[in-house]
Amino acid sequence: MTAPSLCWYPPQNRRGGGSAGFTIVELLLALTILVSLAAVVVPSFTGLLNDRRLARAGDQLRVEMMQARLAAMRTGRIYMLELKVATDEVRLRPWVDMNDMTETLDQTGGSSALLMGGNAIGSTLQAVDVEAESKESTLPESTTVAEVQVQSSPRSFMIDSQARAGAQEGWGQPILFYPDGTSSTAAVTLSSEGVGRVVVLLRGLTGEASVTDRFGPAETGGVP
Q1: E strands along the chain, which residues?
Q2: How far is it, in rounded angstroms, from Cα 41 to Cα 35?
Q3: pLDDT value of residue 171
Q4: CA-CA distances (angstroms) from residue 43 to 36, 46, 52, 143, 172?
Q5: Cβ proximity of 65 and 200 under 8 Å
């Protein structure tokens, strides 16, 4: 009597010979499933990436405001933060004016500014290299400045009126940072199409900046 064989042989296909494989129909079906999954996953990934860029844009602008405040306190000069609406452009530069230096010296307790007169003080201030102390930057890709709201005050009236010339180039009303650590009260809205927006709030009394949570495209956010 012959002993049973323990070997296993793969089943033969219908045509005989060789092992079974994928048919063209099966390959097309698998490809269709992969394309359908990609159509769902790719937009979700893109939206998540843009959401992170919007959050980074808010943090970047908050840091720019902190740096402007520190620069004003360190140098004793007023600094201006300017933004172009509908773009990603941001500019920081010192305000160069004769009365600016007079106010700065008075805040430190010195009376020499009033005794010496504006001309001598002004000549010293004009020597400041504005180009070297200015900085331009851009927000992360796909994020833009949607709106800039700056609350005017009596001490910012002169700067605001003289800075209107820059509006011809698209720059909005400047956000001011003073040597005593205070600043303009402002709200800057940053947006990303299809994702939403965040608002960077600046409190003038303390010069502190904060970023709100992300609002959807249809939300108002309750920001005045």
Answers
A1: 79-83, 89-94, 135-138, 144-151, 175-177, 185-192, 196-203, 208-211
A2: 10
A3: 86
A4: 12, 5, 14, 17, 34
A5: yes
Closest CA to 81 of 192, 186, 217, 195: 186
Q: Note the pLDDT tens digit of each residue in 88-122.
A: 999 999 987 655 444 444 444 444 433 333 333 34
User: What's the pLDDT tens digit per position in 5-15?
Assistant: 555 555 555 55
Would the CA dihedral through 211, 216, 221, 223 be positive or negative? Answer: positive
Residue whose pair of structure tokens reads 């999954």 in the numeric block: 37
Q: Provide the pairing of β-strand 208-211 with 144-151.
A: unpaired
Given a cut of 70, whether residue 221 has pLDDT beyond it is: no
CA gap 27, 90 in Å, rounded: 52
Distance CA 156, CA 133 (A): 21
All domains of the chain in start order, with CATH: 24-211 (3.55.40.10)
Give the integer Cα–Cα distance in Å for 12 and 18. 6
Query: Are 100 and 77 a contacting pair, CB within 8 Å?
Result: yes
